[in-house]
């Protein structure tokens, strides 16, 4: 399979830029508060919430909603072990595809 065809085989749930950003950010920490994650990713509240719902339904993140001092809502998000594996595998596959493309370029396209 050509590396360009492999790109089409990537996990679309993880590959979507906003979700990849969320998963990559969460993989670098234990957990993140919603507003911090929003600031980090640059997503709107609604957009972040929508992507988190998709990731949570897939079992890639866990979302915990609770109240601080019984009045202030706080939402924390953490990546699950499945989510960590998915994002690590995704970046690994992207690097492998990139390496194949670079090798083909070095071979002047002679390898097929």
From TrEMBL:
- CDD domains for this protein: HTH_ARSR
**Domain Winged helix DNA-binding, which positions?**
19-97
Q: Which domain of life is it from?
A: Bacteria
Q: Which InterPro entries does the record match to this protein?
A: ArsR-like_HTH, WH-like_DNA-bd_sf, WH_DNA-bd_dom, WH_DNA-bd_sf
**Keyword DNA-binding (UniProt):** yes
* GO MF term list: DNA binding
Q: Which Gene3D superfamilies match?
A: Winged helix-like DNA-binding domain superfamily/Winged helix DNA-binding domain
Q: Which key words are in the record?
A: DNA-binding
- Is DNA-binding one of the keywords UniProt gives this record? yes
PANTHER family listed in its UniProt record: BSL7504 PROTEIN
Q: Tell me the protein's name.
A: ArsR family transcriptional regulator
Query: Which species is the source of this protein?
Result: Desmospora activa DSM 45169
Traced from the root, the source organism's taxonomic lineage reads: Bacteria, Bacillati, Bacillota, Bacilli, Bacillales
């Amino acid at each position: 399979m050509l590396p360009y065809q492999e790109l089409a085989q990537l996990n679309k749930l993880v590959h979507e830029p906003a979700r990849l950003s969320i998963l990559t950010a969460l993989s670098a920490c234990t957990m993140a508060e919603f507003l911090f994650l929003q600031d980090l990713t640059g997503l709107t509240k609604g957009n972040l919430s929508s992507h988190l719902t998709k990731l949570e339904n897939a079992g890639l993140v866990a979302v915990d909603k609770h109240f601080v001092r019984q009045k202030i809502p706080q939402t924390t998000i953490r990546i699950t072990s499945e989510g960590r594996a998915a994002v690590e595998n995704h970046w690994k596959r992207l690097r492998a595809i990139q390496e194949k493309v670079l090798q083909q370029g070095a071979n002047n396209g002679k390898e097929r």
